[in-house]
Structures are given as structure tokens and as C-alpha cells.
């Protein structure tokens, strides 16, 4: 009996130990499942659950006694570094180890952007937000991607392979672009993407190229237009004053022309029917008509315009305007150049707005 009792006690201790180790293994397994995320989700989904809701879900599990809180999990693990999609109106990028962030930089004087690659794309020791910029490449819209790849490899021989990818809604490289794709097509697709950019994949790391928003793209252009408007404002006032004087002279010229024709008709009628008769005045009327024809042809040779009352009046007004401009110190050529620049900038802003707003 003592032998059976001893064997029963040994078996009880063995069963208790197995149960204890099984419970400990369950603790380790569940804790590891909490610490290691099973999948990566966009940050906009992580923000949808509050910390209290997550703790409440953990507390209802069978292993709640062995589970750790969300605060302990966040403090003891590496945070998931993601990017907020553009449709959330947040353009703050959070870097992680294998991702560098470049950008397209647009200049006021050139519609083609520059591709700026930071030093973090080359050296892993540099921060993504380092003030030192690695290099800038001309990003002509009509060039194929193969030319851009060649330029990057010339500057960075460390890159053996370079490919361009479309950005998915979860901020990952998706569709690979052919090297024959044109730059303008890639930019147009990147503008419509949720993350607002595209990826450049190399054999070293991933490079995300950020496309500026419509406001960022047009801010410098709108400021330049405002500067042109300020420079044009005093010139416009002076021009309006000179044009007003020239317009008044135009009215006087038209009235004077009408008065001259009526006077000519009255004088010729008096000389023909009362003073000298038709036989004497006929040669004068003939040579007067021929003289008007000679004057009209001479006007055409000088001005390259048809001899009409409208053309003659405009020519006289323009001559008067130029005299007034010179008298008051108005630089008409500078005014015309500034007006042309302003109109070109407004057209450029409108084209950019169509690129971003066209579905």
C-alpha cells in the first residue's frame, strides 16, 4: 500500500507540473501574439480605435489575467511607422528604417520640376529629415523613365537596379511602371493616388517621392502674380490717364474730319454755282479726287494698313498715345512685358488646377 501511495503522489506531482508548464506556455504565446502585430494597417485605421476600447477588448479574452495593457505594449515595443493618406488632409510623413522621402520641387520660371533625393536614400546613417540634400535631377515631363534611371545611376553608382512603382492606398509599392513611361504620366497618376506620390525602388531601399499639393504647387506662382500686380498698378493708372486724353483727341479728330468734309462741300458748291461755274471748277475737283487717292496710297505704304476712316483714326490715336506716354515717362514696353508675364502665370495656374481637379 505504501508503494502504491508513493506512486500516486509522484503521478500527482508530475500532472501538476505539466499543467503549470502548459499555463506558462499559454502566457508566453498570448503575450507574443500581443507584442507582434499580425499585419500592418494604415495609420488612419489605428486611430479609429481608442486606447480604452482596445483595453476593453483585451480584458474580455480568456487570457485577460496574463495579458498586458496597451500602454505597456506601446512602451515595450517598436511603434508602427506609417503615413497618413492624402484624403485625411495630413501630409506628415513618419520615416521608418528602409524608407527615404524625396520630393518634386517646382520653380516659378520652369514648368518642369526637379527630383530631389535626400542623403538618407544613400546612407542609412543619415536621417530622412537631414538638411543635407543628396542631389537634384531635371525631371522633364516628356522624358521617359529610362533617362531618369540613367541619371540617378550616374550620380549614385551604388544603385544597381532602379524601378518606379505606383503607390497603393496602404502606402506600399504596387504596379511597376515600364521604363518607357513618360514622366508626365507618372506625375499625373501620383497626383490622383491617395498618398500623393510614387515609389522609386532600388537594391538598397525604398524611396517615396512626394508630389506637392495644389496649394503648395500654386503658392509661389500666386505670390509672383501678386508681385506683378503691385508693379503694374502705378503703370496702369498712368496708362489709363494717357489713354483718356488720347480718347478725347480721337473724338475731336472725328468731329474735325466731319467738319472738314462739310466745309469742302460748301466751298466747292459756292465756287461752282455762284462764282466761277462748272467749266472752271471741274479740273479742281478732278485733281482733288486724284490727290485724295495719292494720299491714301501713301498712307498704305507707310503704315501697311488699308486707307479707311477707322484705320486712319486708330493710327492718329496711337500716335497721340505714344506722345503722351513719352511726355509723362510711361514705359509702354515694360508695361506690356509685365502684363504678358501676369497672363502667362494665370494660364499656368489654371492648367495646374485642371491637373489636380480633373477626375
TrEMBL record:
Family: Belongs to the MCU (TC 1.A.77) family.
Role according to the record: Highly selective calcium channel localized to the inner mitochondrial membrane, which mediates calcium uptake into the mitochondrial matrix. Mitochondrial calcium homeostasis plays key roles in cellular physiology and regulates ATP production, cytoplasmic calcium signals and activation of cell death pathways. Sufficient to operate as a pore-forming channel without the need of calcium-sensor or auxiliary subunit.
Subunit: Homotetramer, assembles in a dimer or dimers configuration with two interfaces.
Predominant location: mitochondrion
Sorted UniProt keywords: Calcium, Calcium channel, Calcium transport, Ion channel, Ion transport, Membrane, Mitochondrion, Mitochondrion inner membrane, Transmembrane, Transmembrane helix, Transport
Organism: Basidiobolus meristosporus CBS 931.73
GO molecular function: calcium channel activity; uniporter activity
Pfam families found in the cross-reference section: MCU
Calcium uniporter protein C-terminal domain location: 214-338
Transmembrane annotation, as ranges: 253-272, 284-302
Reactions this protein catalyses: Ca(2+)(in) = Ca(2+)(out)
Topological relation to the membrane, as annotated: Multi-pass membrane protein
Compartment annotation: Mitochondrion inner membrane
Protein name per UniProt: Calcium uniporter protein, mitochondrial
One GO cellular component term: uniplex complex
GO biological process: calcium import into the mitochondrion; mitochondrial calcium ion homeostasis
